[in-house]
C-alpha cells in the first residue's frame, strides 16, 4: 500500500493523500526473503500465470497473523543454527535436497550446524515460473502470570498462518456445497438418508465375522 497525492474531483484545487494498492513481483529468492525486522507486504500472493474468468491471476494469499520475537544477532556464531528465524517469510525454489529449515543435530554443534537455512537463499535463484516452497516463521511470547492458574487461557495466545485462495476460483466455491442433511430419530440405518448405512450391501465389502476380545485368556496364566 502506498499513498498518492490526488486532486479531489469535487474540489479540483484541493489535494489529498489516498492509499493505493501497488503490485510488485518478487523474482528472486533474496527479494522474497522478508526479514523479521522489515515491513511485510499487506497482501502476499503466490500467483500463477493462469487467470480466472474475471481476468485476475489465480493465486493463494499467504496471510501471517503472528510473528516471532526479536532474533538472535547474526554476529553471534551460534545464530547459524537458527538462521531460519531471520525471516518472517522466505519463498525459495523447490529442491529435493532442501527438505527442512533446521535439523535435530543442529543442537549438537550449533557453531557448524548440519542445516544452515540461510544457504537456501544465498544462491539467489529465480522463483519465477518454478515450483515454490514458502517458509513461514510464526510464534508468540507467553509470560506466565497469575491468571494461568489453574489453566492457561488459550484465547489470544494462538499463532499461525493462513493459506487462502485469492482469485483462484471464479466465485465462492462454498455455494456449490451440498445442502444440509437432517436426520430424524430412527433414520440412522436408512440408506436413503445415510449412505454409510449401506456399506454392508456393497458387493465389494468383505463379510467379516463379529470381532470379540477376551483379553489374555489362554495366553498368560496368573497364579496367586
TrEMBL record:
<keyword id="KW-0186">Copper</keyword>
<dbReference type="GO" id="GO:0005886">
    <property type="term" value="C:plasma membrane"/>
</dbReference>
<dbReference type="GO" id="GO:0009308">
    <property type="term" value="P:amine metabolic process"/>
</dbReference>
<protein>
    <recommendedName>
        <fullName>Amine oxidase</fullName>
        <ecNumber>1.4.3.-</ecNumber>
    </recommendedName>
</protein>
<dbReference type="Pfam" id="PF01179">
    <property type="entry name" value="Cu_amine_oxid"/>
</dbReference>
<dbReference type="InterPro" id="IPR015798">
    <property type="entry name" value="Cu_amine_oxidase_C"/>
</dbReference>
<feature type="domain" description="Copper amine oxidase catalytic">
    <location>
        <begin position="13"/>
        <end position="175"/>
    </location>
</feature>
<keyword id="KW-0479">Metal-binding</keyword>
<keyword id="KW-0801">TPQ</keyword>
<keyword id="KW-0560">Oxidoreductase</keyword>
<dbReference type="GO" id="GO:0048038">
    <property type="term" value="F:quinone binding"/>
</dbReference>
<dbReference type="InterPro" id="IPR000269">
    <property type="entry name" value="Cu_amine_oxidase"/>
</dbReference>
<dbReference type="InterPro" id="IPR036460">
    <property type="entry name" value="Cu_amine_oxidase_C_sf"/>
</dbReference>
<dbReference type="GO" id="GO:0005507">
    <property type="term" value="F:copper ion binding"/>
</dbReference>
<dbReference type="InterPro" id="IPR049947">
    <property type="entry name" value="Cu_Am_Ox_Cu-bd"/>
</dbReference>
<dbReference type="GO" id="GO:0008131">
    <property type="term" value="F:primary methylamine oxidase activity"/>
</dbReference>
<comment type="similarity">
    <text>Belongs to the copper/topaquinone oxidase family.</text>
</comment>
Amino acid at each position: 500500500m502506498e499513498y498518492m497525492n490526488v486532486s479531489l474531483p469535487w474540489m479540483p484545487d484541493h489535494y489529498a493523500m489516498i492509499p493505493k494498492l501497488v503490485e510488485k513481483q518478487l523474482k528472486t529468492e533474496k527479494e522474497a526473503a522478508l526479514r523479521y525486522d522489515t515491513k511485510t507486504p499487506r497482501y502476499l500472493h503466490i500467483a500463477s500465470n493462469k487467470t480466472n474468468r474475471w481476468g485476475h491471476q489465480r493465486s493463494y494469499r499467504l496471510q501471517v497473523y503472528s510473528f516471532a520475537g526479536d532474533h538472535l544477532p547474526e554476529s553471534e556464531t551460534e545464530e547459524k543454527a537458527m538462521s531460519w528465524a531471520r525471516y518472517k517469510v522466505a519463498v525459495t525454489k523447490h529442491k529435493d535436497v532442501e527438505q527442512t529449515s533446521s535439523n535435530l543435530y543442529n543442537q549438537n554443534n550449533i557453531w557448524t550446524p548440519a542445516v544452515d537455512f540461510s544457504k537456501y537463499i544465498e544462491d539467489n535463484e529465480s522463483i519465477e515460473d518454478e515450483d515454490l516452497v514458502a517458509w513461514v516463521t510464526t510464534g508468540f511470547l507467553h509470560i506466565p502470570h497469575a491468571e494461568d492458574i489453574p489453566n492457561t487461557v488459550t484465547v489470544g495466545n494462538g499463532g499461525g498462518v493462513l493459506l487462502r485462495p485469492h482469485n483462484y476460483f471464479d466465485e465462492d466455491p462454498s455455494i456449490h456445497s451440498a445442502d444440509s442433511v437432517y436426520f430424524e430419530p430412527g433414520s440412522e440405518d436408512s440408506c436413503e438418508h445415510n449412505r454409510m448405512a449401506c456399506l454392508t450391501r456393497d458387493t465389494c465389502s468383505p463379510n467379516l465375522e463379529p470381532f470379540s476380545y477376551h483379553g489374555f485368556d489362554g495366553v498368560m496364566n496368573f497364579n496367586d
